[in-house]
Amino acid sequence: MIHLFDYIFLLRPTLWVPVWTFFLLGAYRGKVLSGGQASALHFADAFVLYTLLMGGVYILNQIVDIESDRVNKKLYLLPEGYIKISHAWIEFSALFGIAWISAISFSVEFRVILLLSMLLGILYSAPPFNFKGRPILDLLSNSVGYGILAFSLGWATANPFSKTTLLYALPYFFAVGGVFINTTIPDIKGDKQANEITTGIFLGEQRAYWLSTIFILISLVLSIYLRDWICGTASLVAIPLFVWAAVKHNLKACFISIRVGAPILVLLVGIKFWWFIPLLALVFLSMRIYYKRRFNIIYPKIV
Q1: What is the mean pLDDT of each run of 10 residues along the chain (303 residues)?
Q2: What is the pTM of this model?
Q3: Cα–Cα distance between 60 and 218 in angstroms, integer?
Q4: What is the DSSP letter of 150?
Q5: Domains identified in the chain and CATH numbers
């Protein structure tokens, strides 16, 4: 039975958290600004199909990332042969197919944004594009993918997409970018061995730390201007952590800036969507149990 769970956790549930977070933020902002609201069934369908689509994207990322994941000693399922590559391709194709069949009932603009999310996910991982291994493009892919596209999909469930959508997505674009830059730093060694040049490698650790701090600061300024108290609060809490990481210039401070700063936004979303925190708790506990029994490791870790 545990082998069935291998295929579930190949979807990388930890990365569902940012997908869900920015989708919900978009839905919330769209509702607040327009007074509109999707039906519970329509909203749930959008939530699930987007999760399936991004799960497929994360499988593709692991398929093409096997060597660097082996060097970095993470994501054991494909690098260690627990799941065959051919099986991963089948699961990837099935998820994309199910997501698109489910999307037929949604608006054209929703499907366009969904298509852009899928294409960006493919460009991010698949050769010869390989945005994840190209400086700046890796940064823009994450900032646009989560901060704009995920946000816009949530928005589209409650309010028609417009230029206003992009304006209110900007604080999240920079918030995601700031966090992402710091995530490239711990993987510099493995990425170099895999011949990938990420933003962290391109900038060097010190400049990467300070650029991430600038991104978080811009996010705060934009949040204040747009009166977005959720993103503003998260950015305000995160800034000292990012400055500390830049000053200390070590991996411990880097991990703290990522693992403490980012969850603040998640907790604030939980205030607006009461069921979100219990859902995340369920994901967290299921992963703890799975990774302990399957690999005898404690994952994910809070700090």
Answers
A1: 84 93 94 69 90 94 81 77 92 94 90 94 90 93 96 90 93 96 87 83 93 96 96 94 91 86 88 94 94 88 62
A2: 0.92
A3: 32
A4: I
A5: 7-295 (1.10.600)
